[in-house]
Amino acid sequence: MTWIALALALAAQAPPSPDATQWELVGDDDIATLSIDPARLTRTGDRVNLVLRLDMKTEESDGLRVLLSFGVVDCAARTRTVYRMEGFRMDRSLIDVHDVPADRRETNLFGDGPLDTAVFERACGRRS
């Protein structure tokens, strides 16, 4: 499952405006532009905490336009787990915040698509 598919499947709520952060572009596709918050990229061993921002190219039916995805990447296992989603409207007002309970979190392997590769390499460095 891609970050975008996972993010949309969990669809969200949110607190402070996503505009307050200095986002670093990761890439884009037909659905969204994906950025990462370099200030919240923290590593402990093979695990990296990160925050991704998806700027949707079109507004979703519930008004969703910006989605923040909080997760953990396991560099050794090449997996990711999302534990929180925050969704915003185009005016950056909060739609929803969704904390994923520990027993309901899904751990997914990174795919080989360009966005998955870019996120993995930004979080873990280049690895084979």
Question: Can you describe what's shown?
Answer:
- By secondary structure, the protein is mainly beta.
- It has a single domain, classed as Beta Barrel (Lipocalin), CATH 2.40.128.710.
- Helices cover 15% and strands 40% of the residues.
- Strands 1, 2, 3, 4, 5, 6, 7 and 8 form an eight-stranded antiparallel β-sheet that branches.
- β6 and β7 form a beta hairpin.
- About 7% of the residues have low confidence.
Tell me the layout of helices and strands:
Layout: H1 3-10, E1 24-28, E2 32-36, E3 42-44, E4 47-56, E5 66-74, E6 79-88, E7 94-99, E8 107-109, H2 114-124
Antiparallel strand pairs: 1-2, 2-4, 3-4, 4-5, 5-6, 6-7, 6-8
Compute the number of helices: 2
Determine the CATH topology.
Lipocalin
CATH architecture: Beta Barrel
- Stretches with pLDDT under 50, minimum 5 residues: 8-16
The secondary structure category is: mainly beta
- Helical proportion? 10-25%
First-last Cα distance: 20 Å
